[in-house]
Every structure is written in C-alpha cells, then in structure tokens.
Amino acid sequence: MLEVKDLHVRYGNIQALHGISFTVREGEMVALLGANGAGKTTTLCSIMRLPPPEGPVVTKGTVRFRSTNLLHVPPHEVVAKHGIGLVPEGRHIFGNLTVMENLRIATYARKDTGAIAKDMDRVFGLFPRLADRKNQRADTLSGGEQQMLAMGRAFMSGVRWILLDEPSMGLSPLLMQELFRVLKELNETGTTILVVEQNAHLALRYAHRAYVLETGRIVMEGPARELAQDPEIKKAYLG
Ligand code: ATP
Q1: 198 lines ligand 1 (CB under 6 A)
Q2: How far apart are CA 71 and CA 161, in angstroms?
Q3: What residues does the ABC transporter domain cover (predicted)?
Q4: pTM of the prediction?
Q5: How far apart are CA 54 and CA 64, in angstroms?
Q6: What element of type H or E holds 198?
C-alpha cells in the first residue's frame, strides 16, 4: 500500500500542498482529480522524489510505501528498488531513437531476460500501434502514440506500480478512451495505478476510487462511481 499522510510541500515561498493524505492499495486504480494548479503534479513529484531545484520541497508528512518512508530513500531507489514508475506529463521519450530502442533502454537495469521478452510481447499486445511502428523514430509518432510509448516504457522498466501525470493531455476523445482502456487492462492484470487527471469524466469511468484536489487540499474522496453521481462534482468537474 502507498500511504501519503499529511504531506506539506512548498516551492520557495509558495505552499503547494497543505497537508494532503490519501492511499492507494495494491491492485487498485486510483485517480487524483483537480483543476490547473491544484497540486497534482507536485504530489507525483514528491512521491517520486524529483530533486530540487525544479522539484518541490516536502516540509512535513510521510509517503509510506509498504513498510518504507519513501521520503527517506534516495530518489533512484523509488524506481529501482521499490518498483514505482512515473509517466510524466510531456512524456519524455527519446525522440531520436526508435520505438523499439526506447522500450529496450527502459530495461537497462533489469536482469530477468526471460521476463523482459514476455513484457515486450505484452506491450506490443496492449499497443498494436507500437508494434506496427517498432522501427519508427519516436519523434515522428503522433501525440497519442508517444503517450502509449511512454506507458510502454514504464512497464518495460519492470515496475508494477505506475503513476501517470495527465495521460489524456492533448489527445482526441477517441484516443483518450483507448488509453484509459489499456490502463484498465494493465491494472486488471497486476499493475497498480495512480493517475492524475483533469478529465474527471474519463478518470471516474475507469478508476476504482478518486480524490479531488483543490488548491493543495483534498476536498473530496470516495468510490469513483459515487463521485461521478455527486452533485458538486458534476457541477465543478463534469460540466
Ligand atoms: P496542472 O494541471 O496545471 O499541471 P497541477 O494540479 O499539476 O496543475 P502543480 O503543477 O502541482 O498543479 O502546481 C501546484 C502549485 O505549485 C501551483 O500554484 C504552481 O504554480 C506551483 N508550482 C508548481 N511548480 C512550481 C515551481 N517549480 N516553482 C514554483 N511554484 C511552482
């Protein structure tokens, strides 16, 4: 279980998170919803320990993963030792490398060769578009295909906890659906997911539970189905 408790985070003098608490259980798909500037990216960066100067500074709170406080481990261990991966906003793929090369690079720290081959098949099974474009340079992929590649890379790194920052950003409604369907499939086959989203419609359709963040505070939480019916959520986030 990932348990964020009373997390306070600031950037210089700007307080971005005012003591947020939430949990993600093994096997769940949880959404963190909120408008621009609510603190969603800050939350993910704090969990992943993205370092200063760009990174946020945690001034109080804990991020407990299983029995470890992640705030006390070196950032690279969050991925390599604890098996939590991040698919950042903006994707961060290597544009001058091919699809296949991008996926292979993600496996550099793994030694389980047999499992790598299996995972590669799995990625191409989940994303047939990537299979068709194995040898294509990543910077010539469409936005949606790049997002798929970013998700594929996280999976190929061997992690089974994946945090995603606004995967639907800039995609057509059809592609958004496709991506969330794949996310759900990943989740149902053993990957725990925390997804940050502005698109509440989409996230509440696929997630088990959700939290709503407003200016650095969690203002609502509950099963996704219930939140989707909540009058306040409907008014503020579902239009
Ligand atoms: P968006 O959906 O627009 O990405 P968000 O919910 O992810 O928004 P954050 O990016 O976490 O929000 O920002 C939370 C607050 O922290 C905002 O007020 C933002 O201006 C501030 N902030 C974010 N990054 C920095 C930074 N590097 N330096 C100073 N303030 C920052």
Answers
A1: yes
A2: 17
A3: 2-238
A4: 0.93
A5: 23
A6: none
User: Phi first, then psi: what are they for 124, rounded to 5°?
Assistant: -70, -25
The two structure tokens encoding residue 146 = 């790049």
Q: Which residue has the higher pLDDT, 88 or 7?
A: 7
Under the banding of pLDDT at 50, 70 and 90, the label for residue 170 is confident
Pick from 169, 168, 162, 209: which is nearest to 44 by CA?
162
What is the spatial distance between Cα 203 and Cα 183, in angstroms, rounded to a whole number?
11
Q: Going by CA atoms, what residue is nearest to atom 18 of ligand 1?
A: 37
> For 10-54, what is each residue's pLDDT tens digit?
998 899 999 999 999 999 999 999 988 999 999 999 999 876 566
Instruction: Share the mean pLDDT of the chain.
Output: 92
Tell me if 178 sits within 8 A of 153, measured CB to CB: no
Confidence at residue 52, expressed as pLDDT on a 0 to 100 scale? 58
Distance 43 CA to ligand 1 centre (A): 10
- Give dist(CA 44, CA 41) in Å, integer: 5
Q: Is the CB of 90 under 6 A from ligand 1?
A: no
Q: Nearest residue CA, atom 31 of ligand 1?
A: 11
Closest CA to 158 of 196, 117, 101, 125: 117
Angle at 209 between CA 205 and CA 215, to 5 degrees: 100
Closest protein CA for atom 21 of ligand 1: 16
